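User: Let's play a game. I give you a shape written as tokens, and you guess the letters that built it. Ready? Here's round one.
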């Protein structure tokens, strides 16, 4: 077996780092002959002198190093990869960067969960569900974690294994340890580990006055540094609070703060010297505690609050429990144990007996056994030779969020998460897209709701058109327009929607309004300068000619506009750059799509050749990873630069879906159908961050992929981009060789 371990690693001061090191050593890595190695995760701004088994380092906030780590693992003939998971040790929102690594691995994955949340946030749920889907085995350390994984995350039982937290084989003589630490004349209470508000140390301090009154030789040792994340966001506020509390209660001679990250040897020395070990945590939702495992493993007398891991580990007389934040109950327990040494000794004996079963050699052997089983039975990748998409993975077609964003005037352009942002008002772009989407939806559903919404969005375009045929764009919530003339891009999107409405108006009353709006706008087609406004307009004219194929004026307009795109292409084209301008920016897929539309209308081979050559160029920069990786809008992709990986926008994914639909419709090549499906899956998690942009709760679409995660706002543009793509996709199921316009 050759195993790659991913996690934090010693000498980084981190509990998971110690866990990973012990796991590495106890699964054969300590021998130096196994070939096993470690991929360590560095926290921001830190460097470490790692031991030789660390062969690769991931910088927590550098997304690119996760991809390089996966490539390194794949090249080193690994049988199994074991990942230690805790949200805070990976980069991006809730550690989302780990998904990129996992999806890039070509070997079976086993994941150890150090945290399993019963009530995760939306992003935490998305990250965890994807890990549980990708990993072949999931390791947890408590029965409660098994229950949560099954109920909250829907993980099948056969995928989950319970393996106890290992305990190092370090033991000290109690008397010798007390003498060495100068504690031979004290009754010692101990808490160790990273310090933070959730540790509940103040509960112990508040219980001490009653204990000290009867046993004045009691000393409470708090061994550990403040957690680095706490220091980063709140400094030493909690530690100062504890010091003030000690002073207020007059306990200066009975509480000792050792502000240090202790070595494991020191930890076990203090455990041996202590009379009672305490974990007074304030929240039940702690599924794993390495410090508690250590204390039980060496046979300490433990008193704890009943958080999930403690409730299980201290069952059957291995420890005592008290209620959260109940210093009175705690004081009673401490007095009872200090006054009855035989009770403490019974706790130590039972804990020590259990501790023999959770030593690292035994835990490591279990991991090794599971790794062998996973490597032997992991399913092999199946290469699909057809472009079929598993329809069962698609969510149902839902317009809930569109309903929330729409009033009787039109669709609001922005949202705060899933709630309309009235402050930003309306815009022509989104109402044009909404009209297009609802017309597509009506073709599938024939629903009265779609008819009603078509009237609303068409009404906005009708109100937005100026007397000269141009359009206004932005309207405030007070129903007043904020501009006199829209951008050319917004004009082009309006023409696209009107052209589609000409071909597919559901009733004559709508058709007559569309015809008038379209006719008023025709004189402005020749004056367009923006290549994207030209592309949008061309697509609209393409649909218009579906209803009016004999209109020579519009057909000639298509030829002239397409010639301008063709000329722009020839101006910028080089041997290595096959594009219409000197950069790849937004809505890229619509440019070759427009040329395909023009080629179909005019039967011009030069338009066709440019369309397919530019399609292939765009594809080489967006689909080379096996999934859609869009050009980000931070710096775009300039001919002399490098592509921006973020922020990626749903409207660009829509452009790719529609481009491949048009290419498939034009050429009939099933490769384009396959790439259409690949492009659509960007919305459902087949993207660079490997997380769904579609929100299964709101039925809206998030506003994009940022460098650190998902932009959870769900504006009209994003949700409409998803729905337009979804409706185009659905059409391929019904008419595999048809067109969305046929």
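Assistant: Ready! My guess for every position:
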């Amino acid at each position: 077996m050759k195993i790659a371990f991913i996690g934090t690693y010693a000498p980084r001061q981190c509990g998971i780092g110690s866990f990973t090191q012990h796991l590495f050593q106890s699964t054969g890595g300590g021998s130096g002959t196994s070939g096993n190695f470690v991929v360590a995760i560095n926290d921001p701004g830190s460097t470490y002198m790692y031991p030789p088994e660390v062969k690769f380092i991931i910088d927590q906030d550098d997304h690119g190093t996760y991809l390089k780590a996966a490539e390194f693992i794949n090249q080193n003939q690994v049988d199994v990869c074991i990942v230690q998971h805790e949200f805070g040790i990976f980069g991006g929102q809730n550690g989302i960067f780990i998904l990129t690594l996992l999806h890039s691995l070509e070997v079976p994955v086993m994941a150890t969960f150090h945290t399993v949340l019963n009530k995760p946030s939306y992003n935490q749920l998305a990250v965890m569900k994807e890990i549980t889907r990708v990993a072949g085995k999931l390791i947890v350390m408590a029965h409660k974690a098994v229950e949560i994984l099954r109920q909250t995350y829907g993980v099948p039982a056969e995928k989950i294994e319970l393996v106890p937290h290992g305990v190092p084989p370090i033991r000290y003589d109690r008397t010798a340890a007390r003498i060495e630490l100068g504690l031979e004349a004290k009754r010692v209470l101990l808490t160790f580990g990273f310090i933070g508000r959730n540790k509940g140390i103040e509960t112990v301090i508040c219980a001490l006055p009653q204990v000290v009154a009867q046993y004045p030789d009691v000393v409470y040792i708090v061994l550990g540094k403040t957690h680095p994340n706490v220091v980063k966001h709140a400094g030493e506020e909690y530690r100062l609070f504890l010091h003030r509390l000690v002073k207020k209660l007059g306990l200066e001679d009975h509480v000792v703060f050792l502000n240090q990250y202790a070595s494991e040897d020191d930890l076990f020395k203090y455990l041996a010297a202590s009379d009672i070990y305490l974990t007074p945590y304030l929240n039940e939702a702690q599924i794993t505690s390495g410090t508690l495992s250590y204390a039980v493993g060496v046979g300490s007398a433990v008193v704890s609050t009943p958080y999930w891991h403690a409730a299980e580990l201290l069952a059957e007389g291995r420890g005592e429990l008290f209620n959260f934040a109940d210093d009175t109950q705690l004081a009673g327990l401490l007095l009872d144990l200090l006054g009855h040494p035989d009770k403490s000794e019974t706790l130590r004996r039972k804990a020590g007996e259990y501790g023999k079963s959770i030593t690292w050699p035994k835990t490591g052997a279990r991991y090794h056994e599971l790794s062998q089983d996973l490597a032997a039975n992991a399913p092999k990748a199946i290469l699909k030779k057809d472009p079929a998409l598993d329809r069962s993975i698609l969510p149902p077609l839902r317009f809930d969020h569109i309903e929330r964003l729409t009033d009787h005037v039109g669709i609001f352009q922005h949202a705060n998460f899933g709630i309309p942002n009235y402050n930003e008002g309306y815009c022509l772009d989104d109402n044009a897209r909404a009209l297009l989407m609802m017309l597509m939806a009506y073709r599938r559903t024939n629903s009265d709701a779609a008819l009603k919404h078509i009237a609303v969005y068409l009404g906005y375009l009708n109100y937005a058109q100026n007397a000269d045929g141009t359009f206004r764009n932005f309207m405030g919530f007070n129903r007043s327009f904020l501009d006199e003339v829209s951008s050319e891009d917004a004009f082009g999107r309006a023409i696209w929607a009107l052209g589609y409405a000409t071909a597919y108006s559901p009733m004559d009353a709508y058709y007559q309004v569309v015809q008038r709006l379209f006719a008023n706008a025709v004189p402005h087609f020749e004056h367009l300068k923006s290549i994207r406004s030209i592309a949008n307009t061309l697509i609209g004219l393409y649909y218009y000619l579906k209803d009016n194929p004999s209109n020579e004026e519009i057909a000639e307009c298509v030829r002239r506009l397409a010639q301008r795109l063709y000329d722009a292409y020839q101006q910028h084209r080089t041997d290595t750059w096959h594009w219409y301008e000197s950069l790849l920016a937004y809505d890229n897929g619509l440019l070759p799509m427009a040329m395909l539309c023009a080629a179909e209308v005019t039967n011009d081979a030069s338009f066709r050749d440019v369309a397919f050559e530019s399609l292939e160029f765009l594809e080489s920069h967006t689909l080379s990873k096996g999934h859609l990786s869009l050009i980000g809008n931070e710096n775009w992709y300039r001919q002399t630069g490098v592509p921006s990986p973020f922020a990626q926008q749903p409207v660009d994914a829509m452009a790719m879906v529609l481009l491949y639909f048009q290419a498939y419709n034009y050429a009939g090549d099933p490769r384009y159908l396959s790439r259409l499906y690949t492009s659509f899956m960007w919305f459902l998690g087949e993207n660079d961050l490997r997380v769904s942009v579609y929100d299964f709760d709101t039925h809206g679409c998030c506003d994009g992929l940022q460098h650190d995660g998902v932009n959870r706002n769900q504006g009209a543009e994003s949700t409409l981009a998803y729905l337009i793509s979804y409706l185009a996709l659905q059409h391929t199921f019904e008419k595999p060789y048809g067109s969305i316009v046929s």
